[in-house]
Amino acid sequence: MSVIILAIESSCDDTSAAVLKDGVVLSNVTAGQKVHQDYGGVVPEVASRAHQKNIVPTVAQALKQAKVHRTDLSAIAFTRGPGLIGSLHVGVCFAKGMALSLGIPMIEVHHLRAHVLAHFAEDPKPSFPFLCLTVSGGHTQIVQVNDPYNLVVLGSTIDDAAGEAFDKTGKLLGLDYPAGPLVDKLAQSGEPKYQFTEPKIDGLDFSFSGLKTSILYFLKKQLQENPDFVKENINHICRSVQDRIVSILLNKLELAALETGIKAVAIAGGVSANSGLRKSFAEKGSKLGWETYIPAFQYCTDNAGMIAVAGYFKYLKADFVGQEVIATPRLK
Fold first, then answer.
1. Which one of 3.30.420.10, 3.30.420.40, 2.20.70.100, 3.20.20.140 gives the CATH number of domain 4-116+300-316?
2. Sign of CA dihedral 20, 26, 30, 31
3. Residues contacting 221, CB < 8 A, separation 6+
């Protein structure tokens, strides 16, 4: 009998539902929330209310696209955490209610584990063990993936995430939220004319707070001398900042590969959609003899397809949870 899983992702401001059958993602639907652009960042209460509005039609669309009826489902997978408590609560409660009504098991999924396992949504898929640099708006990690059930964090950010550095830079430049993709777009027609210092952090951990401060003071100084500095040089600023963030990420990843001896190397998370990171990652991989892997764009940002894949691996081990499960915003 086929294993058919409905997956729900609601950790931040995107409501997403996906259907997976025997390890193959049949649909992956996401409803975004443009309202946060007016505030320059995600407003938790607004996000929670939008999830309540979006979750029923999003799930219905995912089932329709997959040509699956809810009575065909074997289990429901959902993001338990980490994330915004209100947003997570909507997804968890919906999953609990639907699973209870259908009499099927539930599978809790860790959001970051799902980003890593998104590499198994489509071919080519990495072999084990492999290293994965997971980079998003809220998280930056290097993980050694020994198998789908054994993931070891080798390094993580001690303060801000790389995605946050992109967004905060964009905000300083007057760009709309989310600014990361806009910085990427502007950087493509710029030159790395300005130098920002790479933080000196021992081991495989990251730090981006110092870089953000450096960018802030740089812009203040330049604007005092020329009020039109940002307007006249925004492409070059974006390229310079992007190149530094990418170099920080890839230098640590190179160190991790050297220390572990692992040649299969991957990147994942929302920032892995950044064109500068993808290009530099491919170039470094070619230079160092890595087997490199990047998920398709639809599996880079927050999406239920990756939750479905992670849930499928847990289903194979009958790793289920009961109705007592709750959303956990700081899930370890």
1. 3.30.420.40
2. negative
3. none
Cis omega (within 30 of 0) on the bond before 124? yes
126-294: in CATH 3.20.140.10? no
Residue 34 is predicted with a pLDDT of: 64
Mean of pLDDT over the chain: 95
Q: CB under 8 Å to 304, separation ≥6 — which residues?
A: 7, 8, 9, 16, 17, 18, 28, 29, 30, 62
Q: How far apart are CA 200 and CA 252, in angstroms?
A: 11
pTM of the model: 0.94
How far is the C-alpha of 191 from the C-alpha of 274, rounded, in Å? Answer: 16
Do the first three CATH levels of 4-116+300-316 and 126-294 match, i.e. the same topology? yes
Look at the block and give the residue holding tokens 């939750």: 307
For 284-289, the CB contacts below 8 A with 24+ separation are 284/250, 284/253, 284/254, 288/254, 288/257, 289/263
Residue 269 and residue 21: Cα distance in Å, rounded? 23
Percent helix / strand / coil, the chain, rounded to 5: 50, 20, 30
